[in-house]
Amino acid sequence: MQQQPFLHKPQAMMFDMDGTLFETETVLLPAYHRTFQQLRSEGLYEGETPPEEIILSSLGMLLEDIWARVMPGASRQTIDRANELLLQLQLQLMEEGISRLYPHVEETLESLHAQGVRLFIASNGLEGYVKGVTRVHHLDRLLEGVYSAGEYETETKTELVRLLMQQHGLQSAWMVGDRSSDVEAGKGNGQTVIGCRYADFGDAGELAGADVVIQSFEQLLDVFNKAK
C-alpha cells in the first residue's frame, strides 16, 4: 500500500463489484464458455469462443461495450441472447456454491458497518447479476443500497454514482474499485477514490488518480482507521 495522504472519514463507501468485492472469474469463465456453446448450438454464433483475456480485460465496462469488444459486429439478437445466457449461467453457478468473494471482504464490511459507515454497491453490471452476488454471499444485510447500470440505465459510472449520492443525501463518500471507471466516478463527483490492485484485470495505469491504492481488501480498514 502506498503512503497514505490526509483523508477524512466518509459518511459512506461505494464499492464496485467485479474485481473489488467479488472474484468474478470463479463464475464468469465457466459461464462464458457455456454461453458460446449455446450460441453456436442456436445458430447465433460461428467459430471459436473469443479468448478469455478479452472479456477479463473488459470487466468494469458497460455490457454493450464489453460485447462490442468480445463479438464486434454481432447482431442485436445475438447480444441480447448472450446477455440472457451469461446472467442465467452465472447465477446458476453461484447457487451451486462455487463463487467466491475476495479474502476478508465480509469481515471488513462488517467492521465498517459496525462503525457506522453507510455501505453501497455501484456497478456497471446487470441488476440480476449484481443483486445475485449480494444475495448469495449474504452482503445485502450490510448494504444500504445496490446500484447497477443495468437497473438505472446509466451510461457511465460517474452518472450512476451521482444518482446514488443524490438519492441518499451523501456529502462525503469513498469510491472503492479496481478500474479507471471507478476513479472517474469518484473524482467526477468530487470524492475520495480507493483503488484496488489485486484482481489483475486492468493495465498498469488503470488506477492513476486514485488517492490510495490497496493491495488486498483488508487494507481498506487500515486506511479508514488512519483517516481523521
From TrEMBL:
Pfam family for this entry, one: HAD_2
EC number: 3.-.-.-
Top-tier EC class: hydrolase
Keywords associated with the record: Hydrolase
GO molecular function: hydrolase activity
InterPro entries registered for this protein in UniProt: HAD-like_hydrolase_sf (IPR050155), HAD-like_sf (IPR036412), HAD_2 (IPR041492), HAD_sf (IPR023214), PGP-like_dom2 (IPR023198)
UniProt name for this protein: HAD family hydrolase
